[in-house]
Amino acid sequence: MLFAFFVDKKAFKQSANMTQKYGFTTTILHSDRQKTIEHGAPHKPVHTSVTWGYSDARQLAEVFQGKQSGYRYGRQGNPTVAALEDKVTKMEGGLASICFASGMAAIGALIQALLREGDHVVSSVFLFGNTASMWQTFGGQGGKVSMVDATDVANVEAALTPATRMVFVETIANPRTQVADLKRIGELCRARGILFVVDNTMTSPYLFQPKTVGAGLVVNSLTKSIGGHGNALGGALTDTGLFDWSSFPNIYDAYKRNPPVQWALAQIRAKSLRDFGASLGPEAAHHIAVGAETIALRMERSSASALAVARMLEADPRVAAVHYPGLESHPQYVLAGELFRSSSYLFSFELKPEIDCFDYLNRLKLAISGTHLGDNRTLVIAVAHTIFYEIGAERRAAMGIGESLIRVSIGIEDTTDLVEDFRQALQA
Ligand code: PLP
Fold first, then answer.
1. Within a domain: residue 77?
2. What is the residue range of the signal peptide feature (predicted)?
3. Mean pLDDT calculated for residue range 32-59
4. What was the pLDDT predicted at 227?
5. 214 and 79 in one domain?
6. Pairwise CA distance, residues 290 & 32, whole Å
7. Which end of the chain is more exposed for a tag (fewer CB within 10 A), N or C?
């Protein structure tokens, strides 16, 4: 019997068995019920309390000292958020996860909790604009960052120094869709004992698990396809259990009480959530958890539609270029096919110079001009004039972002409606 158990002490073992036994959607749909839920509810309820009372004051002290489990204060953890953390961990096949107020808060936690002055990071140059901006901030705080073309492991290897603490890449880069040389970078990091961090936002754990290429930490913006409905911000860091934290020099003694596999998340939860406070709220966690139940269905649909729209645009003489890893013309088409279940919902394209990109966007009837991704609704944006405006033309050029590049995040509308919308807008 699958759900004949509601016993907390067996939960970890049951959780591991379930992940091995059942498929992706079955596992996440039923993950909350593997631990005791109030009144047998299928969803973990929304707990809005920021504090928890203990009848024995000594028990509270033991919770603070990590000698027994329990909640201390809402900034560091909450039962509803913990249920989502468990779901994300299962999706990634990881060891444990921490949720944050947004994807950027999760990425910021890497700097906040794991890096120090003088440390060196090798990052893909092909990145979401705010992440690129964040590495600039780290540079201004005494860190060093080498931004390299991570579609070839040789560039990553050439940039490594004795001070390199982390290699950071996105799976499919937002917005130009370059695919990082994930497997070979993972092998390089493993051989050199360097932490490999993969931002899995564009693929999602349904299409790809970075653990399979040796990532030690995985970033997900939960705001995107995991939540899917565009109604809650959130982010997560998942420890895959693959990195040996005993070789990482930046862990404080206070977080070394348990076995090394737990050190990093203990430090991140304290240094980022407790001290910095970018915590995910329980209502947002609930929205995201409900959205996550249908991610497989949504990703199948939006990936198939993205391919159909990308193919239509590529075949049209008024379109100069389409960047989508699912197209044979994409430089990493073969690699993407090997690594990912499908090529996801994001592509970008450029029109021939005679068509103004803003006029084109204004002719779209279904697709919404808006700055978000992985939503049920199709979204479009001229990235050089918005998200990548601040970083300037020179850096945009280095990232492969043309001045008229249009980014498209395909939703779950009917495929034929989407193809028609993008086609009709070509007719000036
Ligand atoms: N990582 C990638 C690849 C993204 O595209 C984004 C946002 O678009 C983020 C991280 C940041 O996520 P959030 O908007 O939840 O802060």
1. yes
2. none
3. 92
4. 98
5. yes
6. 11
7. N
